[in-house]
Amino acid sequence: MTADHGIVDVEVSGQIYLEDIPGFSDAASFAVGDPRALFAYGDAVGARTALQLAGTQVYAVTPEELIALGWIAPELRTMGKAPDLVIIAKPGYACYDRRTANPRSLAMVGQHGGISDEEMRVPLIRAGLFV
Questions:
Q1: What residues does each domain of the chain span?
Q2: What's the whole-model pTM score?
Q3: pLDDT tens digits for 39-57?
Q4: Which Gene3D superfamilies match (predicted)?
């Protein structure tokens, strides 16, 4: 059995450049990951505040909040493997930290990594012995 996630289209008008948000670069030394779900490192409170003040179309959550929701295992935090802040783009948006992003990724319309139904639902196709 194999599975894959969904992909959504994000137009250029939905691109968010994190380094352009006042205060974000001062708080977060960098953000990496897929454009629909990035991991930021640095001052989580400062980075989240900058995103909120800018009215950015993202969910900015800490690993502790994700642990409480059951989305990640507590061991990731205690092992030092979790970022300081997780930035999840809302539908129709993608985030880029051009300090670290591959310039070619800015030209991609199809994106994944978010939490929309289109990205989270995985179709099941039954074949062979399972039909």
A1: 8-130
A2: 0.82
A3: 999 999 999 999 999 988 9
A4: Alkaline Phosphatase, subunit A
